[in-house]
Amino acid sequence: MRRFAFNGVPCSDRALRIGVCGPVGTGKSSIIALLCRELSAPLELAVVTNDIYTDEDARMLRAAGVLDPDRIRAVETGACPHTAIRDDISANLIAVEELEGDYTGLDVVLIESGGDNLTATFSPALVDVQIFVLDIAGGGDVARKGGPGIERADLLVVNKTDLAPYVGVDRDQMVADAEAARSGRPVIALSRLDTASVAELTGWVRHQLEHHRSGELVPQDPGPMAPHSHAHDDRVHSH
Ligand SMILES: Nc1nc2c(ncn2[C@@H]2O[C@H](COP(=O)(O)OP(=O)(O)OP(=O)(O)O)[C@@H](O)[C@H]2O)c(=O)[nH]1
């Protein structure tokens, strides 16, 4: 079913909005820089970053020279990052819509969440698809810990795989654990040093854009919290 914005324009006519979230330091800004480097020639891109008290990530991306600096806008959330990507998305929506107004013909807007914990996910009212990022150096067991992003984000990236031998993590086992948690949803084992994995990531973005342009992409909400049970009762439920 085709989706329409409030002004009656089909959503598939505007840019594809991709959210990137995950714990602090997992490599979200680096992934956005990578995507800008790889895709800004064939595609029209823009970026919105979120930081709690600064515009540090936006400044880092502008300094990296991966995109026209005016196409990189910062939202200072002033509160826990998930509030601005899930609970009150207005500041982010305004930033995205301003970019779409300033640059007609944008193909993709990348929205980077501030680093948060395993429960953070984007509202499907803000993004069309979302990527959850884990750091292999954060421990091989993290993929098994679950949570809405790990289990149900549109894409899970197990990042910095080049570091696996140095931190004693079994990369293949961590990817297998992630795949087991995700019921067939895609997982990419990524390192910016591994060109094949970078091509896999850019291929995924291109595929999402085609799906969006066809009008068939319907945003899926990973949910604010994974279904779980408490010790005193064995009924699985979610909040
Ligand atoms: N070895 C290695 N390091 C990486 C890779 N990707 C990112 N890093 C490093 O990981 C660190 C954190 O990367 P960022 O991109 O700043 O992470 P972030 O998730 O945006 O961080 P916050 O915005 O603070 O949450 C930096 O020192 C990056 O250089 C990778 O593929 N391999």
Automatic annotation (TrEMBL):
Region of interest (Disordered), residue spans: 212-239
Keyword Cytoplasm: yes
Residues engaged in binding GTP: 22-29
Composition bias type Basic and acidic residues, residue spans: 230-239
Gene3D superfamilies the UniProt entry points to: P-loop containing nucleotide triphosphate hydrolases
Compartment(s) where it occurs, according to its Swiss-Prot or TrEMBL record: Cytoplasm
Listed SUPFAM superfamilies: P-loop containing nucleoside triphosphate hydrolases
CobW/HypB/UreG nucleotide-binding domain boundaries: 18-188
Predominant subcellular localization, coarse grouping: cytoplasm
Superkingdom classification of source: Bacteria
Keywords, comma-separated and alphabetical: Chaperone, Cytoplasm, GTP-binding, Nickel insertion, Nucleotide-binding
InterPro entries membership: CobW/HypB/UreG_nucleotide-bd, P-loop_NTPase, UreG
Keyword Magnesium: no
Stored PANTHER family: UREASE ACCESSORY PROTEIN G (PTHR31715:SF0)
Family designation: Belongs to the SIMIBI class G3E GTPase family. UreG subfamily.
HAMAP family: UreG (MF_01389)
Reported function: Facilitates the functional incorporation of the urease nickel metallocenter. This process requires GTP hydrolysis, probably effectuated by UreG.
Record's subunit section: Homodimer. UreD, UreF and UreG form a complex that acts as a GTP-hydrolysis-dependent molecular chaperone, activating the urease apoprotein by helping to assemble the nickel containing metallocenter of UreC. The UreE protein probably delivers the nickel.
Protein name as it appears in the record: Urease accessory protein UreG
Taxonomic lineage of the native organism: Bacteria, Bacillati, Actinomycetota, Actinomycetes, Propionibacteriales
